[in-house]
Give the backbone structure.
Amino acid sequence: MKNNERGRSTAQYPGNHTAEGDDMMTKWLTEEQACEYLQVSEAALLRWRGEGKLKAYKLSGQDVIRYRQEDIDALMQPLQQKNVMGTIIDWDEKYGSGHIRPDGSDEEFFMSYKGITAPNQGTISIGTRARFDVEETDEGPVAKNVRIEE
């Protein structure tokens, strides 16, 4: 166990970050609490950690992994976009799924018939313009509430 410049003990979680055990200003969440707060599975948390999108901490004297609520809130801001305008870049009628790209972005999001707001389901083709919401799922961000622009 190391001591920081103020003499407080710190612990390092392998591959992640050091945290001070007596930081009273930070709201810490366990893995279970973080999953509940985000309404995602533990697999999603692990994926975000592996991708470097979410920092995990091991507090001094504790064996439980913790997450800072402010880190989780910062992660979720761009993942919960509403009323985004974009273009359908591929669509497979047989499977009822494809991808949509937001205007001005290189990102693309999976979409399916389930995520399309009726009654516009029959008007989908490559190049179709649509508004949509981006929501995080266990498999990653997806387009939901897709509204085809006429």
